[in-house]
Amino acid sequence: PHKFRVKLRGKIKNANPPPPPHSPLRIKGFTLIELLVVVLIIGILTAIAIPQYKFLIEKTYYSEASKMLKALTTAEDIYFLTNGVYTTKFNDLDVSLPEGSQIASCNYVQECIKTKNFYYSIYYNSDNFWTIQARRVIGNTGHNYQTYIYQIPLTNAGDIKRGNLLCAIAPSLTTDINKWRNFCKKMSGSSTYTAIYGGELYLIQ
User: In angstroms, rounded to a whole number, what is the distance separating the alpha carbons of residues 180 and 166?
Assistant: First the structure.
């Protein structure tokens, strides 16, 4: 609307009065301090939320790995009852492989099963320690990229008992060692581990 001025007691003033104190017309912007506080809070929340989110994503793969490891363990037990020994050949076992998986050659064992998220293998050493492993795959890095390994031993080794479900890392080989060590600790619910054959083994169940 058109504004006009009137003369009151010798002074020229706007006929339109100023807006009341709480009017939307008097709302002020944020101060620099207030903006910095908001940015700081967002940064703190992000620092807390992102690692927890990544942990939850990794944890979702646990169900896949544990189910496959237990199936392979049962198949190995059946094979052992029939033949008196374990086998490293998946074709020797009566087990259904995950959809889309394929048998591949791996450097550290004779063969392994490659799936989207894991390399599964049956490993044994000179001490006759047998274990079934699910080595986590990140992207297209291949089986030599070290993250963490779920495994179920078929034989005892020190404090490691047959049938234990473990989360393992190899400090001399693992990339981002602290990241995956903390992951195994969270999966285990404990910082206690068994050091054996150059690895740290955390008991899950």
Answer: 13
